[in-house]
TrEMBL record, chain A:
PANTHER family: BLR7065 PROTEIN, SPERMIDINE_PUTRESCINE TRANSPORT SYSTEM PERMEASE PROTEIN
Family classification: Belongs to the binding-protein-dependent transport system permease family.
Domain annotation ABC transmembrane type-1: ranges: 94-307
Broad class of where this protein is predominantly found: membrane
Organism from which the protein derives: Streptomyces endophyticus
Name this polypeptide is given: Sugar ABC transporter permease
One Pfam family this sequence matches: BPD_transp_1
Highest taxon, organism lineage: Bacteria
Membrane topology term: Multi-pass membrane protein
Keywords: Cell membrane, Membrane, Transmembrane, Transmembrane helix, Transport
Gene3D superfamilies named in the record: MetI-like (1.10.3720.10)
Localization in the cell: Cell membrane
Classification of source organism: Bacteria, Bacillati, Actinomycetota, Actinomycetes, Kitasatosporales
Keyword Nuclease: no
Automatic annotation (TrEMBL), chain B:
Cross-referenced PANTHER family: MALTOSE-BINDING PERIPLASMIC PROTEIN, MALTOSE_MALTODEXTRIN-BINDING PERIPLASMIC PROTEIN
Signal peptide: 1-27
Assigned protein family: Belongs to the bacterial solute-binding protein 1 family.
InterPro entries: SBP
Keywords: Signal, Transport
Protein name (record): Sugar ABC transporter substrate-binding protein
Pfam families: SBP_bac_8 (PF13416)
SUPFAM superfamilies noted in UniProt: Periplasmic binding protein-like II (SSF53850)
Membrane spanning residue stretches: none
CDD domains: PBP2_TMBP_like
Organism: Streptomyces endophyticus
Length: 316, 413
């Protein structure tokens, strides 16, 4: 069979070949297409599908240190789930995660957009300042966390010393008061997130044709009107991307909080991320950790669905 | 573009790609059943710090020569020893010796991962009972300590002398002295009430010396200890930042002259000594009333033999532990790390060498292990306690916070 096709000159078309070839060729073509998709599918199943399913299964199992030895992880129904949901810490962590995510996104996006708009103007040192603002992005998260922990120290921190010098109190318990710590952590995260937002939004702003602005100024549109009717609609795809990526990296926050407050004081900065970590790797209760992990995945999934729908309506 | 040719190319690419996918999947699914080299033994520890890694490397080199083996050192950060060991257990690639922090050892023992050291002919002769218990879980001796440590009161000699104060020995004295020593940017005392094991380790001596107990966090004695801490904050002798400090941060504060006294452990001595003009002294942690015993928490690591299939290797692993915890090695290690040798004879020799750490050696003699009573449940108790003292130090009442902690510690696994 293969010899016939191999030796058959391409141009030669007999009646028989005409009947059989299209069907066979279509089959082959389809196989070829699947062949190209297969590696991606295998990769997805192996590295995304399997862990996901495993995590869901694990949340219904009694998975403890001894499981690593005897391989036994008996199913325990909804025990892990009810245990996690009955712990007040879960409700607290969920609330903190929501506040943290929304607060961070508003701050990062707002300041990022303002800076991006600012840098579209021509002025001396524009490029230099723009690259300077990228700095927080270049510093590893843990390093930022440790440095900020020092800056925000109540007694010896630079921020309070500075506040004292300019006569603004100087004894703010940034990270040491349960009522204040979450706010401070959000502020630090905003600082970290500004460069990313600014760079992407700046890129998006550059893409908007200048003629449109010229036209709007000829029509006598106000700055606000120009922003609302030209900048915002044309920037929308970029905004969606920035917000979705920002959401994904914010909702799962762990490293920054571990470096800044370790979830404290008095659990006031515990998020779903730190709770998963605490359950799985401090208490070694992997079942409970998996439950919190699943909740985190569910939240991301819901958001992803919204994102896809928004994109679909855009494509139409 | 005739069809047959396209079809042909399609098939060959299909074949190639399928083979490739199969290869990827195969590689990922093949287990990691690496064979063990009979002459090479591994010790897993948390000596990632350059000096500790060096000291352990020297010890292992001497033991390698003595036993005629090759002993390799694998170091991972302290927080990862447990996770790494568990992963190695499930892939059947456990090292021959694991050095666990003593508070983690019960978890691994509870899971059935450790071998009784006595069954491997490791004797506990000359080791004080407290330290044998420290390395035991449910009565079985699983972990041999080389050195142990505990907490003590460190004080700045110059500052105390200038203020004309003696080293405090009771809670009242410490509170008064701390109050007097607080001026300007200098606090009377620094300690760690951080939201991790550090804070719990530091709270333990106050809780225990006051007669409190981790099995009953809601008891009045635990609340009394916590109220004492609250009092220090109320007097402003202790910075409110304490809830965000690790023990290393506390040491930084003390070295920077921001605190006249601190609660800390001997592992800080190496750092303290780098500042030549800092004259520090060390004393037992003050007790509620004169005559009470000062009970500190025993800290440190223990050497364990994980359960592998190969009993022959386990016997050799025990020999490695015997060499690593021999009197000679204990003294060497203690000299380097400023911790107290576990062996009584070694401790006596060491005491003569470093009389300035006498108070620490005394404190070790009465110190208690954190896991002796609650065993593998310690991590739950510890998490509940952290949350409780942080709540109390930032406003809540000690009783309410501890009552909640007790219910959390018992409802959890």
């Amino acid at each position: 069979m293969s010899t016939t096709t191999a030796t058959a000159p391409a141009v030669q078309r007999t009646a028989v070949q005409k009947r059989t070839d299209p069907a066979r060729a279509r089959r082959r073509r389809r196989l070829g297409q699947w062949g190209f998709i297969a590696p991606a599918v295998v990769f997805m199943l192996l590295f995304f599908g399997y862990p996901l399913v495993r995590n869901v299964v694990m949340s219904f199992q009694d998975f403890s240190p001894s499981t690593f030895f005897d391989g036994k992880s008996p199913f325990n129904g909804a025990d892990n789930w009810s245990k996690v949901f009955h712990d007040d810490l879960f409700g607290k962590a969920l609330w903190h995660t929501i506040v943290f995510t929304i607060g961070s996104l508003i701050g990062q996006f707002g300041i990022g957009l303002a800076l991006a708009a600012f840098f579209t103007k021509r002025f001396p040192l524009n490029g230099f300042l723009r690259s300077l603002i990228l700095l927080p992005w270049l510093v590893p998260m843990v390093v930022s966390g440790i440095v900020w922990r020092r800056i925000l120290d109540q007694d010896t921190g630079v921020l309070n010393s500075f506040a004292e010098v300019i006569g603004l109190g100087g004894h703010t318990p940034w990270l040491t008061s349960p009522g204040m710590a979450l706010f401070s952590v959000i502020m630090v995260n905003i600082w970290i997130g500004i460069p990313f937002n600014m760079v992407i939004l700046y890129g998006g702003l550059q893409e908007i044709p200048k003629e449109l602005y010229e036209a709007s100024s000829l029509d006598g549109a106000s700055a606000w009107r120009t922003f609302r009717s030209i900048t915002l609609p044309l920037l929308k795809p970029v905004i969606t991307v920035v917000l979705v990526l920002g959401f994904m990296s914010t909702v799962k926050i762990l490293d920054l909080i571990l470096a800044l407050t370790d979830g404290g004081p008095a659990d006031s900065t515990q998020t779903l991320g730190t709770l998963t970590y605490q359950n799985s790797f401090v208490q070694l209760d992997f079942g409970a950790g998996a439950v919190v992990g699943n909740v985190l995945i569910l939240i991301s999934a819901v958001f992803a669905v919204f994102y896809l729908r928004a994109n679909r309506s855009e494509g139409k | 573009m005739p069809r047959p040719r396209r079809g042909r190319r399609g098939r060959s690419t299909t074949a190639a790609l399928t083979a490739c996918s199969a290869l990827v999947a195969g590689a990922a699914l093949t287990g990691c059943g690496a064979g063990r080299d009979p002459g090479v033994f591994t010790v897993l520890n948390s000596s990632t710090d350059a000096s500790y890694h060096g000291w352990d490397a020297a010890t292992l080199k001497r033991c390698s020569a003595e036993l005629g083996l090759t002993i390799e050192q694998q170091s991972v950060p302290a927080a990862q020893v447990m996770q790494k060991s568990l992963r190695m257990a499930s892939s059947k690639s456990l090292p021959d010796v694991i050095q666990f922090d003593a508070s983690e050892m019960p978890t691994f023992a509870e899971a059935g991962g450790l071998v009784d050291l006595r069954s491997l002919d490791l004797s506990t002769k000359d080791i004080p009972k407290g330290i044998v218990d420290f390395g035991s879980y449910k009565g079985t001796y699983y972990g041999a300590a080389r050195t142990v440590n505990t907490l003590a009161l460190f004080y700045n000699k110059d500052i105390l002398k200038k203020a004309g104060l003696d080293v405090p020995t009771t809670w009242d004295e410490m509170r008064q002295s701390a109050k007097k020593l607080t001026r300007g940017s200098q606090y009377g005392i620094a300690l760690s009430a951080g939201g991790a094991e550090d804070g719990v380790f530091q709270f333990a001596p106050f809780m225990w010396s006051n007669g409190g107990d981790e099995t009953d966090l809601a008891g009045p004695k635990v609340a009394g200890a916590l109220d004492y801490w609250k009092g220090l904050i109320k007097d402003r002798s202790l910075s409110r930042s304490t809830v965000n400090w690790t023990q290393a941060d506390v040491n930084d504060q003390f070295m920077a002259g921001n605190a006249a006294m601190m609660i800390n452990g001997p592992w800080q001595v190496e750092t303290l000594n780098t500042k030549k003009n800092l004259h520090w002294g060390i004393a037992q942690i003050p007790v509620p009333n004169t005559g009470d015993a000062s009970v500190g928490p025993l800290g440190g690591a223990v050497l364990t033999v994980p359960k592998t299939e190969d009993t022959g290797r386990q016997k050799t692993a025990a020999k490695i532990i015997r060499c690593m915890s021999s009197e000679r090695e204990q003294i060497t290690y203690a000299r380097n790390s400023w911790m107290v040798p576990a062996n009584e004879k070694a401790a006596a020799t060491w005491r003569k060498e470093v009389p300035e750490l006498d108070a620490l050696a005394d404190q070790v003699a009465t110190a208690r292990s954190r896991t002796a009573k609650v065993g593998a449940r310690w991590s739950s108790v510890s998490l509940a306690l952290q949350s409780a003292f942080q709540s109390a130090l930032t406003g809540q009442s000690s009783e309410a916070a501890l009552k909640k902690a007790q219910s959390r510690a018992t409802s959890g696994n």
